[in-house]
Amino acid sequence: MHSLPNIGRAELEILRYIADHHPISVGEVAEHFTAKRGLVRTTVLNVMERLRKKRYLIRKEIAGVYHYSPKQPKGELLKGLVRDFVENSLGGSISPFMAYLAEGPPLQKDEVTKLKELVRELEEER
């Protein structure tokens, strides 16, 4: 699996919103981000088109209006973004991420349970 081009913070925020509300039009996304962050429609459109050109989004015309959806299911999309972050920003080491988990904001009980399950699965694989 090859990685997709890097994305910036605003792109990630818009991509996550689209992943949670797709299929969605530029107008609907712009309405949300105008209220939330003061972004104008043309800015949102430009970001969404950049994401489409980077192969994160697909668009389909519905009743004369383009609607955007993530190219991958949200879970796969987020895994890929995390993988790229670890490889590109952390040099392939998860140690800084583990330190963040240990020292950062408290984890929810269900998150701790999932981490324990993951560690058990990793130990069984070895």
Structure description:
The protein is mostly helical. The chain folds into two domains: 1-92, Arc Repressor Mutant, subunit A; 94-126, no CATH class. The chain is 63% helix and 11% strand. The chain has six helices and three strands; from the N terminus they run αβααββααα. Strands 1-3-2 form a three-stranded antiparallel beta sheet. A hairpin with a 2-residue loop joins strand 2 (57-62) and strand 3. Helix 2 (26-37) packs across helix 3 (41-53). The longest helix has 17 residues, at 109-125. The protein is elongated and about 55 Å long. The relative contact order is 0.12.
What's the topology here?
Layout: H1 9-21, E1 24-25, H2 26-37, H3 41-53, E2 57-62, E3 65-70, H4 74-89, H5 95-103, H6 109-125
Antiparallel strand pairs: 1-3, 2-3
Mean pLDDT across the residues is 91
Task: State the low-pLDDT regions, or none.
Answer: none
- Report the principal-axis shape: elongated
- What is the CATH-assigned architecture of the largest domain? Orthogonal Bundle
Number of helices: 6
Major sheet, described briefly?
Answer: 3 strands, antiparallel
The CATH class name of the largest domain reads Mainly Alpha
How many β strands by DSSP? 3
Rounded Rg: 18 Å
Count of domain modules: 2
Strand order, largest beta sheet: 1-3-2
Distance between the termini: 23 Å
CATH T-level fold name of the largest domain = Arc Repressor Mutant, subunit A
Q: Specify the CATH homologous superfamily of the largest domain.
A: Winged helix-like DNA-binding domain superfamily/Winged helix DNA-binding domain
Helical fraction: 55-70%
The ordered H/E elements are HEHHEEHHH
**Portion in strands:** 5-15%
Category by helix and strand content: mainly alpha
